[in-house]
Amino acid sequence: MEYHKLGDKPCSSHLFFAILLVFVFIASFADAAIHFHQFVIEAKPVKRLCRTHSTITVNGQFPGPTLEVRDGDTLVITAINRARYNVTLHWHGVRQLRNPWADGPEYVTQCPIQPGRSYTYRFTIQNQEGTLWWHAHSRWLRATVYGALIIYPGMGRPYPFLMPKKEIPILLGEWWDRNPMDVLRLALFTGAAPNVSDAFTINGQPGDLYRCSSKETAVFPVEAGETILLRIINSALNQELFFGLANHKLTVVAVDASYTKPFTTNVIMIAPGQTTDVLITADQQPARYYMAAHAYNTANAPFDNTTTTAILEYKSAPCSAKKGQPLKPIFPQLPGFNDTATATAFTAQLRSPYKADVPMKIDESLLFTVGLGLINCTNPNSPRCQGPNGTRFAASINNVSFVFPRRNSLMQAYYQGQPGIFTTDFPPVPPIQFDYTGNVSRGLWQPVKATKLFKLRYRSQVQIVFQDTSIVTVEDHPMHLHGYEFYVIGSGFGNFNPRTDPAKFNLIDPPRRNTIGTPPGGWVAIRFEADNPGIWLLHCHIDTHLPWGLAMAFLVENGVGELQTVQPPPLDLPQC
Q: Where is the Plastocyanin-like domain (predicted)?
C-alpha cells in the first residue's frame, strides 16, 4: 500500500494564512467522503497447516478487506450474513459519538444479524486518525473475521512525523487447526479452558516455521534507504505478543490511533485489540530479514509457544550460490515468553506528544478488580465440570461475572424502556476488600453472575483503577472500553494504594488509548470524560475471558439537547 501524499507548505502572509484556514475549514466538510461497502460474511475454503477448513470470511478474504478513509469521512457498510452463525461487526476504537447502534457488540448495542439477514452500519469518523481495525463481536468469529481500518489525516494535514515512502498493515492473528467456534463450544460445555491455538499469523499466513506454510509466507519488498510505516494490529484472539524485526530499529509514533512522542525500540509488546504504528528505515545491508511475533504469556496456564514470521526483503538483496535461491532471512531476537520486565519497560515509554487534556476534577473514582474465578459444581465429576478440581472457569469484574442478555440487547431495552433486562447497581469498588494479589481465600473465588451496569452522568469525569487479582492466576488483562478513548495515567505492581500511588500519576503527557493491559499482579489507572451517551461495553479483549464474564457496561446518560443525546436507532436494526 503506497502512502497518501498529505500536507502543503505554510504561507508567510498572516492574512493569507487566516483566509486559507477558513477555506480549509470549509473544504474539510466539502472533501469529506462517504464510503459504501458490502461485507458478505460466509464460509470459504481456507488452507493452512496442510489442511483446508471451511472458514468464516468477509468477501472471501482472510484477513478481511482493509478499509481506508480520512478523518471526517462517513462509512456505510452493509453486512450480509451468509454464514451459519449469528454475527455482528465492531469498529474497534471508533468513538461512535451518540451512535451506539453502529458499535456492534452482540446483545449490548444490537441483537445479532441472524443467518440470511443483513444490517447496515453507518458512522462518521470524528477527530480520529491512525490505525484502528474492525472485527466480528460474536463469540469466536473474530478469529477469522477481521481487518484493518486506516484513518488518514484530513485533506491538507500531514503526519506529525517523517512522511514514509510506503505503509504496510501488519495484522497479527491466531489460527486453530479446527473450527474456532467448535473449540469455544467444547470449552463452554466442559467448563474447562479452551485449547490453545496451533499457529500465529502475519496477514493471515503462519510463516516459514510451520508445516506447509513457507510458500505463502508474507514478503514485503523494500528499496534500500526508504522509510516504511508499519501499522501493527494485534488481532489475535487470546494472546499478547512480542514483535520485532531483525537488525532494524522500530520508532513508535502512535498507539490505538493516537500519536505518541516518538521513541526507538528493538521490540514492541502488543495486546489483543491494540495497534502500534512504527517507522522503520531500510538502512541495513541489502538482505532478507524476518519480522516475527511470539507470545508474551503472563498467566500460569498453557499457551501457544510457536513463532510467526514474515519477510522484509530488500529488492537489491543478493541470491545465494545455490541455483539462484534467495538468501535465508536473518532472525530477530525476541524476549522470553514471560519477560514482564521488557513488556513493562516498553509500555512505560509511551507518552502523548503534547500536554494532554486529562480530567482533573474526578466525579466517579472506581476500583475494578479484574480476574478469573471458579464456579463450584454440585457434581464435580460431571462432564460439564472439567475445570480445576471439578469446577467451571469463570471471570469477573468486582466479583460480578457479566451475563449477556438474550431477549434483547442492552441498548435496545434501555431505549425502549423494557424492564427486566439489566440493573444499574454495578459496584463501584470490590464488595469485599482483600489482599488482591496475595494468597486469596478460596471463599472469594466464586463470582456472582448478573447483568449489572454502572450509570454515569453526561460529562462526568471518571477515573478507573483496574486491579488484577491472583485468583486462579495473575494475568495481563487487556481492558477495552467501547465508545471512548482514555488516558493511561499510571500503573504498578501489587495492590493499588489510594494514599500513595496517585502521587506517581502522570497528568501531563499520558498516552491516550482504547485498550490497556493490567500488569500481571498489578494495577493500571485511566481517566476519561463521559461525553458519549449510550451503553458502552468494557471487557477483557482476551476472548476466552469474555464468555466467562470478564465484562461490564457503562450507561452514560443523555445530556441536554440533540447534540448530547443518543440518536434514534436505524430502521433496519436487527431484532432478537
A: 42-153, 167-316, 425-558
Sheet holding 512-513, edge to edge: 448-450, 400-402, 391-397, 364-376, 461-468, 522-529, 486-493, 512-513
Q: Which residues 6+ apart lie within 8 Å of 421 measured at CB?
A: 405, 407, 408, 410, 413, 451
In the DSSP assignment, the letter for residue 97 is T
Give 203: exposed, middle or buried? Use CB within 10 Å, 0-12, 13-18, 19+. buried
Q: Are strands 166-175 and 227-234 parallel, antiparallel or unpaired?
A: parallel
Rounded CA separation 453/425 (Å): 6
Distance CA 92, CA 128 (A): 12
Helix-, strand-, coil-residue percentages of the chain, each rounded to 5: 10, 40, 50
Asked whether 97 and 532 are in contact (CB, 8 A), the reply is: yes
Q: What's the rounded Cα separation, in Å, for the pair 280 and 260? A: 16
Grid coordinates in use for 157? 494535514
Query: How far apart are alpha carbons 498 and 514 in whole angstroms?
Result: 24
Tell whether pTM > 0.90: yes
- pLDDT surpassing 80 at residue 322: no
Instruction: Please tell me the class of the 160-350 domain.
Output: mainly beta
- Report whether 49 contacts 211 (CB < 8 A): yes
What CATH number does the domain located at 362-562 have?
2.60.40.420
Domains 30-158 and 362-562 equal at CATH topology level:
yes
Judge whether 56 and 85 are in contact, CB under 8 Å: yes
**Which set of grid coordinates corresponds to residue 542?**
482476551
Question: Helices (H), strands (E): how many in the chain?
Answer: 5, 32
- Identify the CATH number of the domain defined by range 30-158: 2.60.40.420
Which secondary-structure segment (H or E) carries 250? strand 250-255
Closest CA to 312 of 252, 222, 223: 222
Which residue bears the cell 469446577? 391
- pLDDT mean over 510-532: 98
Domain ranges of the chain: 30-158, 160-350, 362-562
* 323: confidence class by pLDDT, cuts 50, 70, 90: low
pLDDT (tens digit per residue) in 192-225: 999 999 999 999 999 999 999 999 999 999 999 9
Instruction: Write phi, then psi, for 185 (nearest 5 degrees).
Output: -60, -40
